Amino acid sequence: MKQREKNLGFSLIEAIVALGVFSLLVASISGTAGLTFLSEIQGGERTVAQAYAVEGMEAIRSIRELGWSELTIGQHGLSKEQGYWELSGSEDILGQFTRTITIAEVYRDVDQTILAEGGSLDQHTKLISVLISWEISPGNDNEFLLENYLTNWASLDWSQTNWSGGAGQASWSIDNQFWTADESIDVNTVGELSLNQAGTNPSPYALLMHFDGSRYQSQDSIDNYSFENYLGIAPNIDFDDWTEYQLGADFSVEPGYQGSSAVRIDYQWPLALGGVYQAAIPVVGDTTYQLSFFVKGNVAYNDLIVHDEDNYYLRSNGSFTWWFTDIAIDVFYTENDWAQYTISFTTRSNASYLYITINGWAMDSGQWLALDNIVLSQEIVYDEGSYQNHGFKKPNDDAGPEYVTGQFDQALDFDGAGGSTSGDYVLVPAADSLNVTGPITLEAWINPDSLGSGIERPIITKWSDAGGDWRSYSLSVLANGKLRFSLSSDGESGNGHTYSLDSSEQIETGEWQHVVGVYDNTEMRVYINGEPEGSQAYDQGIFDSGTNADVLIGSTYNNLYNDNRFNGQIDEVSIELIALTDTQVEDHYSNSPLTPEDVIVWFAPTPIGVFMADKKVAGMHVNSSYLYIALLDKKRVEIFDLSSNPENPPSLGVFNTINKSEDVFTYGNYFYVMTDIASPGIEIYYYDSNPIEAISIGTINLNDQPAGIWIDGDILYVALNDDSVQVFDLNPDPAVPISLGDFATTNTATDISIYGDYAYVSLDDDVEALQTFDISIDPANPTSTSIASAIEEVNGVTAMEDYLFLITKGTSRKVLVYNIGDEPAIPVALGDLTIFDNGWDIAVRGSYIYVGLGGSTKGVQVFDMTFMLAGGSGDTNFEVYGTLESSAFDTGNASGFNFISWSETLPAPEDNIKVQIKTAPTEAGLSASSWVGLSGINTYYEVGNETIIYPSNGHNEDRWIKYLVSLYGSGDTSPILHDFKINYTP
């Protein structure tokens, strides 16, 4: 940062006029004696009124020197009880005189001329009006008005526009450095403070097929298909890999449909002809292809000739005949507009090559024809996922499964025929992305025509014994109608090698049903129509069959095993590289068909590891760079520093409490420790600079034993075991909270968390597990907005932007995740994650989840939420949270802090920048100061426009200042801070 020139708030003419008025007034006063003596000397009430007005104006000037922000808009009186002038009340009674000081906003036009109304607000200029009124006779008042414009002319700016110099500068000296920043912060670009890229989300799909009709993929088998490569000069151009033939025609180059060139054929006289020919284009027999090209010109007639090596010719209906045949190109084109011609066909079973000719016939001289992008594409069964594992209809395109009306748009219909050379199926060639060895989900919609007898109806398999044991995974329907999900740990069959799970319910014929098999590294699960239908423990992994087994849809064992073929329709097939949760399976069932972008509402957080605490965890709280842990059944709180290594933070030590600690929350330099008894239910601690040295300064007696604690702004909420939440105000004295009352919950509360206008209370009940309250109007008397259930009772709850986390208290060992971004009054379940041990509380910081463990493990399990928060498979993502703390800046003297401002770029609605500041008389004192926002401790400045720093926040008369900027990203984009500025008056 750097100091800038002093701000000039009004014009020179305005200053001269104001100075002249003031000089005349001062000249009328003969000295500096008291007002009573002045009144006696002057002998007139008006003179006294003038003196009171001048005194008021000078008082306002002195207040300005204390801090421009002290001059708050409105009507005021004055006080000098503290030995200096300050605003007090709305008027002064000075004997028979009443003095009212009005501070008003000033507006200017584009030329900076002051306007009576309209224009733009000038925050550095204020209109001061001092009105003296007195009674001259009953019912008759006299007035004296003194007005002047005051400006913030003595102020300076501390600004920073570059952070690329790096961290480590404790006190300000180099203007592109700072004190510290998270690893998620990017400072490398001059003039930008942003979030680092977090890499690319892995696609959850190894395969995603909608079966929505024929699709084609270019085989790159036609050489020089866009005529980019050629030699010669018109009219004798030779195009590589093509044979040009003509009778009265010239060849030249025409600008292409997409590329730089196309072939142009100009016909010189009537009945002239000419075209291009390419021989021996490789194809596969019994395979469906599509030939397409672009054409324009004005030639009278042009045609296409296609034949194979046995001189069987393609007809316009897609079949081949031994009789010579040409096909008229019947698309509409002009001299100015390209048109695309396409024809689909299936090659004969023994075909290996095709020969293609495209030519034109002229009826008159001057006609011409242009051709471009001649492409031969093979029919595929299209994979919508990012890996593009396209399949092929078998046993051949003519006899393979057919597209029919499906559950969603179209589906493939499989005939179920037996035999190794018949029976419909789709072959997806082996690929690395299909070699799934860890979590997996197999998913499809099926409508069986029949189940068969003694055979399976395969749906999705990577399961082969051709030339060895190459079994990996399979989802099928048994003859008894049960859904079977099978995995092999080593590729072999039999007990100890292959593990199968059958559904409890049966699959029906003649009906569309959603079927899913899931493996999450610990158990296998099957689902029908969104409902769990069975599970079993399994942790042996999945065998990597590599290229030895393809993925088959509708068949198994390389299509060589008995009569195991699917008979009926299959739609919406997917292989997912993650294990869907119960919630996600139900979501897929309810919201099919989905796309790669929206199918996964969230990515389950990635487990990082566990770091040890001094004892088991009872409660946790994160504030800035510190994690505070109330230790279970112990009288102490442990503190961890998250700034350098949030995944395995070092412990700073513990501070002792009077009673057993159950939970903890911070408020500036205050700790509020929840105990295991009602009186005192809360112990209050304070520290100067080192939180480990916190000392007890008070307690709070509660109505019942507490269960959870949260502070939002200045309001303290305590969840109680008697089905209620008690509410306190920490302002003005955090050591002596003021009770605001309590509100009832529908069941025993176990914890509480606040986000925005809503309180989320976890309850000791699985049916009524989470109750939401609207606290926007009255925090002690809120309105209940919703009640949600959970898989079991809940121990703890915490909220962050868009997400709510519940930690269960039973054997499931789960953290349940809810969406509160769309409708915070009604949380919507997204999914869950499995934790290492019994969980007691949960805290979040940026992209990390910290789960306090209270079972046999005394520690904290860490999860990374980066991809969960970012969403969107296959996209380049950014970190979602980061902070930077500035160096300490010395203003040089006790100063008034006036305004804060910054410029920013927020590419997405979810991107945000928030700022806090702290001040102190000395540099050393900053460590004991609290981070403060617009409305005090635990709040932020959230708007980059010039914003007043309220005097009530206690910064004025301090000398040292620093700022903390927090960046919140959408994951897909990053907010960018371009510059930051503090306006102050030394």
TrEMBL record:
<dbReference type="InterPro" id="IPR013211">
    <property type="entry name" value="LVIVD"/>
</dbReference>
<dbReference type="InterPro" id="IPR006558">
    <property type="entry name" value="LamG-like"/>
</dbReference>
<keyword id="KW-0378">Hydrolase</keyword>
<keyword id="KW-1015">Disulfide bond</keyword>
<dbReference type="GO" id="GO:0016798">
    <property type="term" value="F:hydrolase activity, acting on glycosyl bonds"/>
</dbReference>
<dbReference type="Pfam" id="PF08309">
    <property type="entry name" value="LVIVD"/>
</dbReference>
<keyword id="KW-0472">Membrane</keyword>
<dbReference type="InterPro" id="IPR013320">
    <property type="entry name" value="ConA-like_dom_sf"/>
</dbReference>
<protein>
    <recommendedName>
        <fullName>LamG-like jellyroll fold domain-containing protein</fullName>
    </recommendedName>
</protein>
<dbReference type="Pfam" id="PF13385">
    <property type="entry name" value="Laminin_G_3"/>
</dbReference>
<dbReference type="InterPro" id="IPR003305">
    <property type="entry name" value="CenC_carb-bd"/>
</dbReference>
<keyword id="KW-0812">Transmembrane</keyword>
<keyword id="KW-0732">Signal</keyword>
<feature type="domain" description="LamG-like jellyroll fold">
    <location>
        <begin position="438"/>
        <end position="583"/>
    </location>
</feature>
<feature type="transmembrane region" description="Helical">
    <location>
        <begin position="12"/>
        <end position="38"/>
    </location>
</feature>
<keyword id="KW-1133">Transmembrane helix</keyword>
<dbReference type="Pfam" id="PF02018">
    <property type="entry name" value="CBM_4_9"/>
</dbReference>
